[in-house]
Amino acid sequence: MASLAVTTQSAKLFARACAVTPGGVNSPVRAFRSVGGMPRFIARGKGARIWDEDGNSFIDFVMSWGPLILGHAPPEVVDAIMGAASTGTTFGAPTAREVALAEVITRAMPSVEMVRFVNSGTEASMSALRLARAFTGRDRVVKFAGCYHGHVDALLVQAGSGVATLALPDSPGVPAHWAADTLVAPYNDLAAVEAIFAERGSTIAAIIVEPIAGNMGVVPPAEGFLAGLRSICDRHGALLIFDEVITGFRIGRGGAQARCGVRPDLTLLGKIVGGGLPVGAYGGRRDIMSLVAPSGSVYQAGTLSGNPLAMAAGLATLNALDDALYAELDRRTARLTSALAEAAHSNGHPVQINRVGSMATMFFTNEPVVDYASAMRASRETYAKFFQRMLSAGTYLAPAAFEAFFVSRAHDDATIDEAIDHARRGFAQL
Ligand code: KE4
């Protein structure tokens, strides 16, 4: 059993990576910048566990930031990918698998009458924005502080996720006039949205929102918030876009929209629908989606969109998700989070844990976390210390305070118990 403190191989790889890749990583939040220490280079994963290049094994709660609801290398998904790969990897032509996956999604989410596959959540977000502007003939968009919709220029304004962690509320390189059409309101603040629309409603194409926020940490919608956004959009002729890249198929087959009973005009998907391979998707009302080329004039394209391997992985994943599994994921995650809260409080550490289904965040704060401002008041420093304690014990949490952690089918009760034990020791050492 390697010592979890050994990072020799990761250090060698990180040094090489830093010579050829910005920050040594292919996505900023992976760099451990906000938690300190050496990012671990992962060699393999199986079930709920990952192994780094030094042979250290960890219980993984990042799960690649959400896609792996079945755990690492689930047999049915690996078999599906290998089966697809054996008959070719990409054709740049329509295939049966992309139709099948589109039908699974449109059946699961009634508001999604048509869907277009792309290769990332960012692409889905960018495309849906263009479509909403074309459909309404308007330019402005309302987003919420702390919500992250991918690195789309116009939406890198008070974004969440890595931008929040890196304290980069507005990225350089985004021309001011591109962000000028983006209006930002506090999450869960309907009055602020009403005020924006009272002044500029006729110029606003859409509201884009994470129906359960995951990128400032998990922040559920307040009672009536999403229904209120629906009403505002209807009254002002704007479109309501639900960014369900995280929540789609995470909290149920119908996503957050089924849970809240609010029907968006457009929905973004990603992560789980790709089963661990690069997939994003946007979809919604037929009259809106029909504007997308080639049926309409809104251009959007992609060499690898609908890639057969990704479609196979997505199909195998979604086919494994049923109500019984969601109930089990909910039970296990509830057990984990209540044990975390008990361990934290019994060691004198105030924490707030926001959980919806199998996605949750533990904030080191004693006030409820209901929006970006309250999330930002949680202690990053204490989170960073706890992260390191858990890593040393053998549990891999998100290397950033403002992210969700995810429980998968592979996190059985014994694994949850082991993680709870790591946490009890971690809190005692904080
Ligand atoms: P991608 O372009 O990373 O596939 O998706 C962007 C995106 C869009 N919408 C939501 C709600 C998202 O959470 C994301 C991406 N999530 C982050 C983590 N919270 C991805 C991790 C990373 O950036 O490395």
Characterise this structure.
By secondary structure, this protein is an alpha/beta fold. It folds into 2 domains: 8-61 and 322-429, Aspartate Aminotransferase, domain 1; 75-319, Aspartate Aminotransferase, domain 2, CATH 3.40.640. The protein is built from 15 helices and 14 strands. The chain has helices at residues 8-20, 75-85, 96-108, 121-136, 161-165, 176-179, 190-200, 225-236, 255-260, 286-289, 308-319, 323-346, 372-376, 380-393, 413-429, and strands at residues 42-46, 49-52, 57-60, 114-118, 140-144, 182-185, 204-209, 239-243, 266-269, 280-284, 352-356, 359-363, 395-396, 405-406. Strands 4-10-9-8-7-5-6 form a 7-stranded mixed β-sheet, sandwiched between helices. α2 (75-85) packs antiparallel against α11. The model has no long low-confidence stretch (mean pLDDT 96). Ligand KE4 is lined by residues 27, 29, 65, 120-122, 125, 148-150, 161-162, 210, 214-215, 243, 245-246, 270, 280, 403.
CATH class designation of the largest domain = Alpha Beta
Low-confidence stretches: none
Major beta sheet summary? 7 strands, mixed
Q: CATH topology of the largest domain, which one?
A: Aspartate Aminotransferase, domain 2
CA-based gyration radius: 21 Å
Element-by-element helix/strand order: HEEEHHEHEHHEHEHEHEEHHHEEHHEEH
